[in-house]
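Collaboration report, partner site 2.

Our partner group contributed sequences for two proteins of shared interest, and the home lab folded both. The records are reproduced in the order in which they were received, starting with the first partner submission.
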Amino acid sequence: MSRKDAHLDAMLRHLGAAYYDSLHGRAAQADVARALDSVADHLGEESPRHPVAASAAAAAQHAPGGRHHHGRWHSRVRDVMTTSVMTVDRITPYKEIAKLLTEHRISGVPVLTMGRHVAGVVSEADLLAARARNTGGRWRWLTGRKEEHHGLVASQLMTSPPITIHPDAALATAAGLMSAHHLRRLPVVDPDGKLLGIVSRRDLLSVFLRPDAEIAHQVREILTEVLPGGPTGVEVAVHNGVVTLTGEPELAADNDLVQIAVRLTRDVDGVVEVLDKTSPAAVPALR
């Protein structure tokens, strides 16, 4: 490989890394544009309207507060949350909350203050815990003594402060919170703490219902945009959410960029696993 080709190879790798970082919020669109300009200058060409730069610019345009995110291939909480939410206020009594949970087959309800701020959450577990505390055990319950827990209201029953999530959070973040705190649902709030919706475990699992063909199409898009010469030589197959990449990149310089594409593919909605079976491209002999 000549010195000129080696330099171009290094710049292409830098471009791929800048693009990858822009998708994960660690680089700005200007960083991608500068890397692209460097490649164009090296080739003695005008900087093209390359899909890498266009993709990063589109991410910047749609990201709240100017932040970059990879919403093009990855859903956020706002994409799966339910916006019609059953709620209660702080003076809603025990029996009414129990009725709401039963009739609507939900596991909990946010407790709102004036202005729709989330003060806490009352769950089935909170109601059962209150019953155990205030009845003194099974014997008192069966003897028909006064059911004192029914006099409690939401402000006394709720878990507070509530564990909430932002609508632009990644689904993996929501899943992590639910798992760590043993929750079935999370209130979705704006920066001021106002309720926007609610996301449940079932909502998070819905992304795995995507058709394999749709997943394959998005993986090919990633390869097309990450690899400077397109996905030539790399084949994509998807079965039950498992993505298999096979073949050999056309250029030796593409080997590292294929690994970037693999990392991006793992985060695509509906992907269960990625099997990278690509072979490194042969390195041309030095002359």
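Second partner submission, folded after the first:
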Amino acid sequence: MKTRNYHIPVLFLEAILLNLLISFGQSVSAEVPLTLKDCLNLALQNSRSTKMADLSIEAAREKVAEVNTQRLPSLSLLGTYTHVGKVTSFTIPMGTTPRTFQFGTPNRTNLDARIQWPLYTGGRLSASMAISKLGKDLSIHQRRAVAAQTIYQVLQAYYSVLLNEKIIQLQSENLQREENLWQITQRRYAAGGIPKLEVLRAEVQVKNDAAILEETRGNLKKSELFLRKTLGNPAYEFRVMGQLQYVPVSIVLDNLIQRALQVRTDYQSIQLQQNLSQQQLKLASSSNKPNLSFFSGYNVQNGFDPTDPERFVSNWNAGLQLSIPLFDGFATRYKRNQAIIEIQKTNLQREELRDAITLQIEQAVTTLDQAALKIESQEKNIELAREALRVTTEQFEQGIVSSLDVLDAQQTLARSEMMYVQALFNHIMAKIEISRAIEDFSWFEPDLLSSTPINE
């Protein structure tokens, strides 16, 4: 028995439990906490694109069944009733009682049962069957591609939310440091230790960074809206659970490229397109081939016996029908040429996609390496910047340096922290790109060994 599994098994079993927890959580809390796995569950479950792809697979299966019926005999039943105004008749004298013969009857009834079975079609049926099966395979690959794209969008949206939340946290911490500096300048100004310019400078910096913080909150709102869209616009409030983490990975570029060429659904789809074009070439070449079919019929009608026109008479027939096309206006040749051109196009498309996949992986790996180096360097920069800020702040309180030196130290620390977070995000995004290229997202969720395994 064939099993059909269009969704990631573990994740979709957990989706049922997640919905129950969400229903319970709405009565307890205003926000539902969602992990990455929860987000993937909801997105794959609610995706309209995935549902449409499922319907396309079902339609393709029905198409295969439809084409397969052409191999079977067809049976038709035809019944007619005809009223004729005049019927030819003649009378022959026969002794004392003349005999009248009538050709037919005014009320003619005919019932005809006919069976027809194709025996030879020049390869048309086999080519049509192969094309329909390839169409089903293409729809399955399209479904896998849709699921992979959905996962890709969820990962991007999920980590974008985490990025903006982290940026808000860092900006809030930096704003708190600046407010503390402002308070120190106010105390020192009140004591007559510094000019008012120092106070104004600290105040302006606080207000400027407060405005930047509000702008970042707007960016967070935008990323949350995008995530909500990828999740299917759930009708409840949620908050994302997780954090940006640096998880180094060991990769071999050539292995990634080979793996991508083996598993990428779009690359495999081009191979299917090539096979489809080959079958279309066979179908086009069969247009001028002869057809042979068997037919048989059983007929019941009246008006057949001139001595008794109203009597119903039955009859049957059987035979072979051979049809040989002699000239089709060169249509077969043109169809063959079209199919050959399509084969050439798919060959070029496959070469182009192979180069695009190679470039995609090479660029993602380069970004990954750059981000890893940036993370390591910024960790040391942050440590140095924090110590410099501590020393500078103490020196300002002692009157050794100005508030401008403290502000510079604060901005240096803030930039180092932002660059570190951005490097973390770039590293994660590069891993997402590589995962998309090889259609394996297990770096982020162990259950996502492939985009959507489908058993046929």
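Feedback sent to the partner group on the second submission included the following. Residues 9-81+102-438 form a domain with the Outer membrane efflux proteins (OEP) fold (CATH 1.20.1600.10). The first helix runs from residue 9 to 28.
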